[in-house]
Amino acid sequence: MKRRTAREKALQALFQIDVSEAEPNSAIEHVLEDAPSNEFLTQLVHGAMENKSSIDEMIKKNLENWTLERLATVDRNLLRLSVYELLFCKDTPPNVVIDEGIEIAKMYGDDQSSKFINGILSKIKQQL
Question: Mind listing the domains of the chain with CATH numbers?
Answer without folding.
Answer: 3-127 (1.10.940.10)
